[in-house]
């Protein structure tokens, strides 16, 4: 079967990844925002007996690369060997998207323009004449609504025709420069020719060299032999006097003027486009006065729905799972398993895994879809816009707000997502501070502590308090970012382009299925996989008693002085240490240490849990210190390994563990001191 390589390019937030998924059948959630990759994603599509290898490039505004995303896209389009390109554009803001379209046409005439989101544009009164646009650009143009599949067949037909090597390339629109520039470009192109296979056309390369594009010059120096590159440099020196210094600026202005003329012919705006309702929403959600309160209210609403909806299902699931323990133990005994093995598997591995599943699954099944709905509606970029000024004042980058939001799901994913930050200094700051945002593994402990000691069964009170904890996490992130940017990682904050996409109506059904499959079940499976062996080890530590003293007791007794200094006790501090593989198991570890063999028999009832903890000396101060230390302490093992991989240094991994721990310890010391002063 014949195979053709296709590059899929486009601005951020134009539905490019939706087109990619629809064509290939893959379901990677790729792109430039938090939870999406900077790397090139690939997929296969078969049409009319030809296999197309599609490369989903990171979203880019221009081939004049100023970010890591744009560098990846430019390098692939130039040297990736693609036989044709598909450029995805947003029908609702076509004029801005045409800047990239015109650049790609100049580079690769075998291109199809996919005008996506035509359904959304139509709702806003915007109509794109695909035939008129095709006539002006000189290449096929397909109007699509990729989410519903509209126009994808036409896109594949056009791609089949354009990428056919036996057919002549389309006569794509190519901006022309003044005579002196064109003559200079021809001279440099002759010095470049003949180019090896897989290189872009010589005229495009010559113009980039005349514009003093250092990245292209470096790429050519690395790929051409020394003699040819010397001829190119000689040709450049000879024509340089006839080239204006502002050639690149002139080229950019010319492309934007051309885009304006094309849209005047091909686009009809019958409505008001980005209308008053969206403007009012933006004023509410991003203004200095209301942006932060609106963000906190939305977060509180998400937590309220999560807490109110998860309480009863958690009790049902816990009862069902713990009810299986006795039959499981009987089955193991019937198979001849010794008593110690039966106890280790049922009272250790199974009980802890059941606790984690019962406590995590219902809240995550509600929280992740709600969070994904906000993401798909276009709200997360507005969070970054709202917090950008605060991060700038702390010497960090506003994109850190996006990676911070990712940390609410998983800190390891948040650390990986820091790749979207271009500055190495600011990227490292974001990685080191990401664990100040509580991940899904810490939510069960926080929710349980708030419900047992502060909010009771009132979901609204619990939601408000949990929102306050998240706000404190944001404050700690800003404080730690300021500290790092003024000590270990000094530097000037960088600027970046942040596009606020239009508000979109999420497809609720697809969001629920995707979030349950890709987030909830994935995270739960990983947590249970860690919880079961951890429970087994904990049962052994709780029951092995050399010299008449249990191993777990030896550990907790040794940690007790430090734990009490932090307002907790040795059992809880030991639980945090032993919970290093996964934060989900911290509270089960503490309960197992308190109750030994009777560990988790009555966990569904929070009143019973509170009675157990208060019987072992817990007070509201203990619970508050435990809550704060859960918010700010070393990240889990997966996050630490991710931090080591992304930073390339064990030193920075250790710094990422020490930084939140020091902040958490300081908070606990303050709470203990204030409590002693008030009660003493």
What report would you give on this structure?
It is a single chain. This protein is an alpha/beta fold and 680 residues long. The chain has three domains: 2-162, Rossmann fold, CATH 3.40.50.300; 179-243; 291-489 and 514-679, no CATH class. Helix content is 63%, strand content 7%. The protein has helices at residues 16-24, 68-79, 94-107, 118-123, 130-137, 152-162, 179-192, 202-210, 214-223, 226-239, 247-266, 276-286, 291-323, 325-334, 339-376, 380-393, 400-407, 411-417, 424-433, 443-455, 459-485, 508-543, 551-565, 570-578, 586-595, 606-615, 620-631, 637-647, 650-679; strands at 2-10, 41-47, 50-56, 84-90, 111-116, 126-128, 141-143, 267-269. Strands 2-3-1-4-5-7 form a six-stranded mixed sheet, with helices on both faces. Strand 2 and strand 3 form a beta hairpin. Helix 14 (325-334) packs antiparallel against helix 15.
H/I helix tally: 29
Q: Biggest sheet: strands side by side, in what order?
A: 2-3-1-4-5-7
Radius of gyration based on Cα positions:
29 Å
- Taking the alpha carbons of the first and last residues, their distance comes to 82 Å
Write down the domain tally.
Answer: 3
Number of strands: 8
Keywords: Cell membrane, GTP-binding, Ion transport, Iron, Iron transport, Magnesium, Membrane, Metal-binding, Nucleotide-binding, Transmembrane, Transmembrane helix, Transport
GO cellular component, one term: plasma membrane
Subcellular location: Cell membrane
Protein name: Ferrous iron transport protein B
């Amino acid at each position: 079967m014949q195979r053709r390589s296709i590059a899929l390019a486009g601005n951020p937030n134009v539905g490019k990844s939706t087109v990619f998924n629809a064509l290939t059948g893959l379901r990677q959630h790729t792109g430039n925002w938090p939870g999406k990759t900077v790397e090139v994603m690939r997929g296969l599509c078969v049409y009319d007996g030809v296999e197309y290898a599609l490369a989903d490039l990171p979203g880019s505004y221009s081939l004049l690369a100023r970010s890591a995303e744009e560098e990846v896209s430019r390098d692939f389009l130039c040297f990736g060997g693609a036989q044709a390109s598909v450029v995805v554009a947003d029908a609702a803001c076509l004029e801005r998207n045409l800047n990239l379209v015109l650049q790609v046409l100049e580079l690769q005439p075998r291109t199809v323009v996919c005008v996506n989101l035509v359904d959304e544009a139509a709702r806003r009164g915007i109509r794109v004449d695909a035939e008129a646009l095709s006539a002006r650009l000189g290449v096929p143009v397909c109007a699509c609504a990729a989410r519903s599949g509209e126009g994808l067949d036409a896109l594949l037909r056009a791609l089949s025709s354009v990428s056919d090597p036996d057919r002549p390339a389309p006569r794509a629109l190519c901006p022309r420069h003044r005579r002196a520039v064109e003559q200079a470009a021809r001279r440099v192109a002759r010095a470049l020719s003949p180019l090896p296979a897989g290189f872009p056309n010589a005229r495009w390369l010559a113009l980039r060299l005349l514009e003093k594009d250092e990245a292209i010059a470096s790429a050519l120096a690395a790929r051409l032999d020394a003699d040819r590159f010397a001829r190119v440099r000689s040709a450049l020196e000879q024509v340089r006097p006839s080239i204006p210094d502002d050639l690149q600026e002139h080229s950019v202005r010319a492309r934007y003027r051309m885009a304006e003329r094309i849209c005047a012919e091909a686009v009809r705006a019958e409505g008001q486009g980005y209308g008053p309702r969206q403007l009012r929403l933006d004023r509410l959600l991003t203004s200095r006065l209301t942006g932060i309160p609106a963000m906190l209210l939305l977060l509180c609403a998400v937590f309220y729905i999560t807490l109110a909806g998860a309480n009863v299902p958690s009790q049902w699931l816990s009862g069902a799972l713990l009810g299986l323990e006795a039959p499981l133990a009987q089955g193991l005994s019937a198979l001849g398993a010794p008593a110690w093995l039966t106890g280790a598997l049922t009272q250790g591995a199974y009980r802890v895994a059941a606790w984690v599943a019962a406590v995590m699954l219902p809240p995550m099944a509600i929280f992740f879809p709600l969070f994904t709905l906000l993401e798909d509606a276009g709200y997360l970029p507005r969070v970054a816009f709202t917090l950008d000024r605060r991060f700038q004042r702390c010497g960090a980058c506003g994109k850190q707000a996006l990676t911070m939001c990712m940390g609410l799901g998983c800190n390891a994913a948040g650390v990986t997502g820091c790749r979207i930050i271009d500055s190495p200094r600011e990227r490292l700051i974001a990685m080191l501070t990401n664990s100040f945002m509580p991940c899904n593994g810490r939510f069960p402990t926080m929710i349980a502590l708030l419900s047992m000691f502060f909010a009771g069964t009132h979901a609204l009170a619990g939601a408000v308090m949990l929102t306050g904890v998240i706000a404190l996490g944001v404050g700690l992130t800003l404080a730690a970012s300021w500290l790092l940017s003024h000590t270990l990682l000094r530097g000037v904050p960088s600027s970046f382009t942040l596009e606020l996409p239009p508000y979109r109506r999420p497809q609720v059904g697809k969001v629920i299925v995707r979030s349950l499959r890709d987030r909830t079940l994935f995270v739960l499976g990983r947590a249970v996989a860690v919880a079961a062996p951890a429970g087994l080890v904990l049962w052994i530590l709780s029951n092995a008693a050399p010299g008449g003293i249990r191993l777990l007791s030896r550990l907790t007794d040794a940690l007790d002085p430090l734990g009490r200094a932090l307002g907790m006790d040795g059992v809880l501090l030991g639980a945090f240490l032993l919970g290093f593989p996964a934060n989900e198991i911290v509270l089960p570890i503490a309960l197992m240490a308190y109750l030994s063999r009777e560990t988790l028999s009555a966990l569904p009832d929070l009143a019973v849990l509170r009675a157990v903890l208060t019987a072992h000396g817990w007070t509201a101060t203990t619970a508050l210190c435990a809550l704060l230390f859960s918010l700010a302490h070393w990240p889990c093992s997966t996050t630490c390994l991710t931090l080591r991989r992304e930073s390339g240094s064990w030193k920075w991994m250790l710094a990422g563990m020490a930084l939140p721990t020091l902040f958490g310890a300081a908070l606990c010391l303050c709470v203990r001191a204030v409590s002693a002063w008030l009660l003493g």
